[in-house]
Design goal:
Blueprint lengths: L1 E4 L5 H11 L5 E6 L4 E6 L16 E5 L19 E3 L2 E3 L5 E5 L6 H13 L4 E3 L17 H14 L3 E5 L5 H7 L2 E4 L7 H10 L3 E4 L6 H14 L6 E5 L17 H8 L4 E3 L1 H5 L2 H13 L4 E5 L17 H20 L3
Parallel strand pairs: 7-8, 7-14, 8-9, 9-10, 10-11, 11-12, 12-13, 13-14
Antiparallel strand pairs: 1-3, 1-4, 2-3, 5-6
The structure holds phosphoenolpyruvate and manganese (II) ion.
Length: 340
Amino acid sequence: MIIVFKPTATESQIQILRDEMSNQELTIQEIQGESTRMLGLAGDTSMLSGDRFLIHEFVERVIKVSEPYKLAGRRFHPQDSSFDIAGRKIGGGAFTVMAGPCSVENEAQILSIARDVKLSGADFLRGGAFKPRSSPYSFQGLGLDGLELLKIAREKTGLPIVTEIMSQEYAEVFRDDVDIIQIGARNMQNFPLLVEIGKTGKPVLLKRGPSCTIDEMLMAADYILMASGGGCPVILCERGIRTFEPSTRNTLDLSAIPVIKKKSHLPVIVDPSHGTGYWDLVYPMALAAAAAGADGLMIEVHNQPDKALCDGQQSITPFLFNRLMQKIAKIRKIVTEEAI
Ligand code: PEP
Ligand code: MN
């Protein structure tokens, strides 16, 4: 951390800061520029809020050098992380696809879709039992009954399940019943939820909040990793952010893939369904995500999109999903064979 002083700062004012810092385990280094005086603070500054120095009128600005996250960052973990979850690999060169309906609606629906996506090569079955709906009048999901239906689908197809948790009260149920616990975009900064889910030690799919920066997502990942003690598997998911562009439901930030890869060792997957909001945009953006180096995809698939209780307009049919999977295999071949 570097504290930059105003040109008018006096020696006794700078001494005030030195004294303030003297009981911290930090190395304080004076830096003298041509016309600027600075103090460099080296050591563990993670507990230090740099902004507090701005309380002094003689401080011009504070430059933070280290990242506000550690466990999710590459600095102390340079190698890519990869996980084996229910016999499926995520990260480390694998390409993992999670597919299924937005919401679990009934047994016939979830079984039919699960069978179809499995035949096309999906690795995980996704499906919401607890749904975070913007309107309280919309279908809210089947809750625990939906979870039971997902378990039946897993039993019958062998596909592990990923589903969203909305409240800490179900942490134990999810720990026992779910292969990957999804933290939805709206809950990315629900810190007590992150901590409780981290404590379960289960694999987590953390979706990017619609108004959150990449650094904020990595800080959220640190909450989970810290709470889990040893570091549970965390998979990051870019699912679009809110911008001024109204043509799509969200703006899918594909540049987040290489940015996250620079900053973090955690695998990153892309959800073009919520990222765009329209079924006909899912196919091209899924291909683009694979080409940009994503470690996988989350795709909404519905056998009757026109009758779906949630997000039918952005769900692709099992037929189109099958075509997409074939095309992705070709893109992946190019991406993995031709490293720069
Ligand atoms: C979902 O995946 O079902 C979902 C609600 O996504 P998001 O949290 O990204 O909106
Ligand atoms: Mn949805």
